[in-house]
Amino acid sequence: MAGDVVDSLPGRSLKTRKAEAQKSAKNGKPDEALGRFKLKRLKKQAEHEFDCLAASDGKVREFLARTPCTALDRMLMAVGDGHGDAAVVSVVRVGFRSRSPPCTLDALADVAVYFPVK
Q1: Nearest to 70 by CA among 55, 83, 80
Q2: In the chain, where are the structural domains located?
Q3: Where are the compositionally biased (Basic and acidic residues) regions (predicted)?
Q4: Cβ atoms of residues 83 and 103 within 8 Å
Q5: Of 2-16, 65-79, 88-102, where does the model show the most confidence?
Q6: 19 — phi, psi (to 5°)?
Q7: What number is the average pLDDT over the span 84-99?
Q8: Which is it for strands 86-96 and 69-80: parallel, antiparallel or unpaired?
Q9: How far is Cα 20 from Cα 10, in angstroms, rounded to an integer?
Q10: What H or E segment, with its residue span, contains residue 108?
Q11: Residue 2 has pLDDT above 50, yes or no
């Protein structure tokens, strides 16, 4: 492939690629996980916040006021396919005091999660 992107699973279904990407990601190999989808990381910016409330706004801020978090990690990553197509992906990890916050993370995502990047 062009642009130095390697197809690590040629001819495999999207379901297979997804499963293999999840395994790679869980093993701490994000670049390998992207390769499962024929993508390459172009650029990355990461931030770690200790004050989750100050780093949020709107309904997310309201949620975090009721359900305090212990840490907030944000990452913006540009990925490309080696053919000039690119996308920016936003990943947010929120840590809570207990392993099971009072609501599921799906409910937090349904609140239209938005953490502005400084």
Answers
A1: 55
A2: 1-38, 40-118
A3: 17-31
A4: no
A5: 65-79
A6: -60, -45
A7: 83
A8: antiparallel
A9: 13
A10: helix 105-110
A11: no
